[in-house]
Amino acid sequence: MGLSVGMVGLGQFGQEFVGLFKSHPDVSRIALCDLSAERLARMAQQYHIRECYQSLDEICRSDLDALVIITQPWLHFEQVMKSLQAGKHTYSAVPPVFGVEGDALLEQCDRLVETVKRTGLNYMLGETTFFRRETMYCRARAARGDFGEFTFGECEYWHDLDEPHSNLREVARNRWGKDWGPDKRGHIPMHYPTHATASMVSIMKAHMVSVSAMGYRYPNEDWFLEEAYYRNPFCNEVALYRMSNGALVRHAEFRRIGHPGREGFRLFGTEGSFLSDPSGVRWATKSGWEPLDLSDVSEPLPEPLASNLGGHGGSHAYLVHEFVDSCVKGRLPRIHVWEAVRYVAPGIVAHQSALRDGEPLPIPDWGDPPA
After folding, report:
1. Residues 138, 105 share a domain
2. Is residue 310 a part of any domain in this protein?
3. Same domain, 43 and 10
């Protein structure tokens, strides 16, 4: 008996996953859910899907095994909680929690972990960085001990506000839809940290324990404004973390930068280091460095997913398979709730530190999954 899956949210990003879930050999039934009747009808026709719902409440009352939630960031927590409480295994896009007040977001992390523990259901975060080739390559080398002891890492998510291929002003307007207004400008960069932090946490198998962070204020700013909804004056934020293994990590979230968009990292150890920039990727040791070709880096995937990896560095197919396989086999997904909160909490606390001009602050942790 295969897994029955409901896709909640059929916007531009959600549409990229419908075909992948439908083609997974262990998915026996798929349903669609969206507030837009027009979009729902169009996607149902395109993928020959008959089962459709127009509200989260309605699809939660169904007998589907799992829900995949790819909606606006500020909706994720409440929708995931509703899905879990309805008895559904749940996947959500990043971040798992999102909003303005850091303390409230950390409380939501606590509630999310407790709900997963209480229900015994799977929650998986759809963090693309986990399955980028660079991350998979470094996890394999770390498992072999090639880095030695980790000493320092640098991770970043750089996405300029006016980047020509994905303008964040337009993204904000589209996400808010009819609720858009000038007051909705200026999201908090460090509240969307998972594309950066996931690399460090998943490769080192360690977590951030403390942080000191600073923010940059752009002269004559028209977007990141203290009087707007997010009450955030920083377009760029930089954090320095202490990891649970003793290593240091520098994390940069930039929304105003003269540089191509980047989700990347560099990682340094006592025996070897991984280097990455727009010119390419390299492995370095005390004797020198060598260029790397990561085109063959992969993990096993069922057909037809193996021949259609999808976007974000070919990570989409891996995310789909990891969620489906974990539900079918009754195992924890690798990006489980305890991993997810270790990706998002550091950024939340980093912003609190930046608002306090770099005051060092401890980062809460929810521990490892129960045995």
Report:
1. no
2. no
3. yes
